[in-house]
Protein: TIGR02117 family protein
Organism: Mesorhizobium abyssinicae
Amino acid sequence: MRRFWRFLVGLPVALALAAALGTLVPRPLWPAGAAGEGSRRILVLSNPIHTDIAIPVDEEVRRRFHFLTDAGIPADVPEVRYIVFGWGGRAFYLETPTWSELKAVPVLKALTLDASVMHVDVAGAISEPHPDVAGFDIDDDRFSALLDYIAASFRQGPNGPMAIDNTGYSRFDRFYEANGHFNALVGCNTWTAAALRTAGLRTGWWNPLPVSLGWSMRLYD
C-alpha cells in the first residue's frame, strides 16, 4: 500500500518534471537552418488546452485541399484568408463543442486512448500581435513539407479523405477521420509541435500543453 501511495504522490512530480524538461530541451537539439526567413507566414492559434495551425490560402493550397470545398467548407471564397487545421481526440472533439457540454466519457477517453479526427475551419484576417496567435515565417520548401504533413494526417478512404457526416461547430467547419491515436501524452499539441518541426522550426522535446509549446517556441524560434 505504501508503494501505491508513493506512486500517487510521485506521479504529478514526475509529470511536472517531464513537462519542464520537455519545454526546455529543444527538438531538434541543433537548428537545421536559419529561422524566421521566408515569405510564407503560418500562424499557431492557441486556447488553454488546444492549438491549431492556420495556413495562408493561395491557389496552391486550394488545389492541395480541394476536397474541403466538396464537403461545404468555403475555402475558395475571396474572404477566406486562412484554412485552420487541428488534430485531436474523436470523442472530446465531437462531443464537446462548448465547455458547458463537457462530459465524463470524452474526458476519460482523452486521458486514456481514443481515435483521432482532423478539424478544419476557415478564417478571415487574423490580427497580430495577439496573446493567442504566434506567427512564423518559413520558406517555400518548408511550407510544402508542412502541407505534406497535414495532408498525411487525414485518413484516406476509397474517395480520398473521409468527412464525418453531420459534424462541425458551425456552417463552415468539418471533421474528418484522422490517422493515429490520441491520448493525454500524445495529443493535439504534440501534433502541432511535430507539424512545426516539419516546417523547419524548433519546439520543446515534449509539449503536451499550449503554454509549454508557446514557451519553447519563444525560446528557440
In short: The chain has eight helices and ten strands. The beta strands are 26-27, 40-46, 51-56, 82-89, 114-123, 133-138, 156-157, 160-161, 174-182, 203-204. The first strand starts at residue 26 and ends at 27. The CA atoms of residues 136 and 150 lie 17 Å apart.
